[in-house]
Every structure is written in C-alpha cells, then in structure tokens.
Amino acid sequence: MNFFEQQDRARRNSGRLLILMVLAVLSLITLTSLVLGLVWQLFGQSHTSLWLASDAPNSVLPSWPLVGCVALAVIGVVLLGSLYKQLQLSRGGQAIAERLGGRLINLSPQSLEERRLLNVVEEMALASGTSVPPVYVLDDVGINAFAAGLTPQDAVIGITRGAICQLNRDELQGVIAHEFSHIFHGDMRLNTRLVSVLHGILLLGLIGGFLLRSSGRGSRSSRDNSAAIVIAIGVTLWVLGYAGTFFGNLIKAAVSRQREFLADASAVQYTRNPDSIAGALKKIGGNLYGSQLQAGHAAEFSHMYFAAGISQALEGMLATHPPLDQRIRRITPGWDGRYPHVTELGAAMPAAAASEAAVNVHSLSAFAPGLSPASAAEAIGAIGDPQAPHLLAARSTLAHLDIALSEAAHSCNGAQALLYGLLLDPVEVQASQQLQLLQPRIAAEVAAQLEQLREPLRQLAPGMRLPLLDLAMPALKQLAADQFAALKANMALLIRADGRVALLEWTLLRIVERNVEGARAQTSRYQLQELAAETTVVLSLLARAGGVDEPAAHQAFSHAAGELSFPLDTLLPASASDLLALEPALRRLSLLWPLQKPQLLKAMARCIEHNGQINAAEAELMRAVADILDCPMPPLLGARG
Questions:
Q1: Of the listed ranges 230-239, 286-295, 348-357, 596-605, the one predicted with least confidence
Q2: What pTM was computed for the model?
Q3: Which domain holds residue 421?
Q4: Which residues belong to the active site?
Q5: Are residues 423 and 489 in the same domain?
Q6: If DSSP codes are grouped into helix, strand and coil, which group holds residue 140?
Q7: Taking the C-alpha atoms of 322, 324, 328 and 330 in order, what is their torsion angle to the nearest 10 degrees?
Q8: What confidence tens digit (pLDDT) does each residue in 346-378 have?
C-alpha cells in the first residue's frame, strides 16, 4: 500500500473512528441523562414538581423535559472537556513532548548518543523530503519513542534515554523509521483526536469523584435530602464516566494495535533491514525496564508510543500495542523466541557511540547527481517510502555539507542568517543594496553570522538549498511569534529589493511559512478534473520554470497534459500563470482527494522532464508544490545545477 492509499485509508479510518466515538458518546449521554433524571426524580421530587410530565406525584418514570436538560448539561461537559484538551494540545507535538518531560536537543545535543540520534533523524527527514522535526529526549531508562503532532509540519519525535543508549545505530534507525511512518500516514492527528475525546468523557468521572468527596464533608442530616442527591449524582457520574472511558479505551486500543503493525512494516520498507526494528523490539523484551515511562501523564498518550509505555490491566483488551513476540515474528518469522540481555545505561561504550555517530562518512563517496530522466517519477513513487538511493543521498548531503553552514542551521541566529543569505542576489552590487536595507533591521549577532556565511553559501550547490533549509527548520520553530514576524518581514524586504519575485525566493518563503506557522488541517473535497483550470496554471508555470523559450514551454505543457485523464486548455500566457496566480490555484489543489494527487504529480514530473533534464529551480519548485499538497517528496536524484 503506497503513501496515497495510506492517506486515503487514514481518512476513512478517521471517519469510522469519529462515528464510533460519536455513537459511544451519544450512548453515554443518553444513559447518564436517564439515570440522573431518575435520581433527581426519586430524591428531589419536592423541588422538581414543575418538571414532572406525569400527574402522579410518586411516579418513578423520569421527566422527559428534565432528562433533556440533563442531556444538554452532559453534552456541554463532554464538549468543554474535549475542547479544553484540544486547546491544550493545539501547539502540536511540542505540547505533548513537554508534558512528558522531554528536552529539545536539536540546538544543543549534550552527548555522543544524542548527536547520533539527531544524525539519524536528519538523515531520515532529508531522505523523505520533509523538514527535520524537533527531537526531544525523555530521561527514562525504558526503551521507547513517539511521534506527536496535528500535522507533519508541527510533528515532533521523542525518544527515551534508554533507547539512545542501548540501541545500536541500525536499531535506532528502525525505531525512527517507525515514527516517521506515523507522521506520513496520518496517525498522529488521529491519536491526538483520541486524547481530546477521551478527556471529555473522563471529565464526567472526575466531576463525579469531586462531588463524592464534597458530599463527605457536607451535612448528612439535611431535611431536603441535598446530600443524598449529591452522592447519587456523584456515583452516577463517576461510574458512567469511567465506564465510558473504559469503552473509549477499547476503541483506542483496537485502532492503535493495527496502526502499529502497519508502521512496523513501513519501517522495514524504509530501512530495507528487518533486523533493525526487530532488534529494537527484542531489546525491549530483554531490558529490565522494558518500555516503561515514568512521566505523570504517560497513560494519557499510551497509544502514541513505539511500545507499551505503561503497565495495563486487562492487557489483551486494553493493550494499545500488539505483544512483542507477535510484532517480532511478523518481521522475522524465523525468530527463536529468545530476548538478548541488555546492559545497564552506565555500561554504554562512548567509543562505539562515537564510531556510529560518524556514520562512516569518510567512506561515503560524494553523491553524483548525474542525469536521470526518471528521477521525478521515482521520487513520486517514493513519497512516504524513501528508497536506498534517497537514504544514501541524504547521508552524503549531511557528510559533505560545509561545517559552518551545518552549525548555523542548528542555532536560532544562524538559521535566520542562512535564510537571509539564501535570498541575497548572486550579483554583488545588488546583494550590497539588499544588505544596506537589511542590516538596520537585524540584530548584530545575526548580521555577523550572515557575513561569515556568505562565502560558504556562494559555494553551495543549488541542489543543497532545500536540504539546508530543512535542517534549519527546528531552530526557526524556536523563534518567538514577534521574532518570526520580523523574520518574514525581512525576507519580504529582500525579495522585493529588485522589484521582482524569483521562483527560488517564493519557494523559500512558502516552505518556511508552512513549516513554522503550521498548515491548517483541511478536508479533501475535489476530483482533479474539477480543478482543470488550477492544474493549467501550475503546469504552465512549471513549463517555463527552466527558463526555456516559448516553443519549448508549449512542448513541455503538451507533454504534461498527456499524463492526465481529461483534456486541458493550451499553455497560459506568462502573465496569467505567474506566482500571483499560483497561490490560489495551489490552495484549491491542496483539497484534492488523496488518490487524485498522484495524477497531478506525475503530470508535473513529465512537465519538468520533457527535455531529459531537471535543473535545480525546477526540482525545488516541484518539491515545494508537492509539500503544499501534503506529499513530501524525496530528493530528485537526477536534478542538476
């Protein structure tokens, strides 16, 4: 099952889950309302005479107007609880990582093991065509990890100290590949929704417990039976709230177990090494602390972890993860059933870690792009499933990136300086004019770093610009809102300095905005044929992206139109297919159904490959458009400068 089929399946699963949860909540509300109405009827008749639907003063049937009012109150509690939790988690994965006690390491890894982890995550991100996610380390000795967020743009990866110290590099790569699968295939948003809904149901039980505790401190001899009413209501809410949470957890566990099997299979596809993830699972079985997490809120996010992070009663019913032996045997059917002995954290060998952290970069040959007419089509086929050549390209990119640029990408000031440097005109006179406009608006530290980075950036190969931007994204995400607003204003100033907007400039700005500010979750609603006009705009702009003459642009457009199952109008004039027209076209195209997107991407690929060559501007624009369509595209291996 490819990326687009997984996306479509995740969408359908989300719909089914929503229906199940709505039915569960409606059942809970109905039952709670009936019981509370009956309790009030029995204990508080003297106060509810106006609500009685029957003339019989001693009727035991609940009053339906009263039941309706109770139902509205219960609905309000569940909705408020869910909305509160949703607001609490609105910052995406960062909120969950911090709630579990995680520490960000992208800007300052503190050990060789943390550097090795960061290298593995960066390698996987570059190979996948996504920005590097923020990485958090949890100070737990158990072996575990998680991916969390609402969208791929606000995703984070968390991993325990036990995992980074006890797993070798291949095993660590298997775990990270498993978590990237959750990012690509829509699991994170589903998991976060589950947390919000379950919190709303749980709130009923918490209110019931509060009422029971309060009633114990109140008067038990009240003539109007108020204490008895409070106790009865508290018991009802406590029992039904926790019963609803139990059944909600059953749904959560059933969904989570299936997604774990799929993520395991994806990890094997990513790494092409079944022993990587199988080895990590075996070490969990042989680890004294297993996969346990000690954070106070660990149970709340139990379905997000790589392995079961908490001890659970009724393991078979409520287990959010399949048993270890089942997962291992699905990956390596010949496993003998024995778990390895795992050493204590203190026994880790720094020398071995240092060797692995280096990733044998000295033995890597530089990745030679060369010409590959099928590179764009291959990249589309590898969306959500990077292949060995993409991993090799990512590893080589990291190994050969100038050290000054790499270090700058891992600091807030340096990341800003990199962005400004990428937007400077290659002609020195125009670059000097841009700098005169920029320098009064930026901090002295940023200006100093920009000056130091200008020469390395001048020597940067065109195909390295997007990977460098991807590496800098975690640092940019640490900027405060006012700092990022100033950064965007400065980028706009540099872009408009020469009176025109180049493709590279537009690409950089849109990628930064989308990844730092976050992409709003949208509902798919269109078939590609319904957006023929928007498709024409995109293909017309791509046809001219390589700087070709008009006859060649017409040929490229016709070549691309042949990939579609419906006819297109002719190539639009340049004035009707500029960047101003591209913006609204992409907003509409982003609402395509998942299974409709490959056709558009393949047409785009044929457009930029019509002459057997792909230049850096075409490759960057193609990947930027794919990113806006929520289709993270691996590097185009045949792109040339």
A1: 348-357
A2: 0.81
A3: 395-517
A4: 179
A5: yes
A6: coil
A7: -20
A8: 544 444 444 444 444 333 333 333 334 457 777
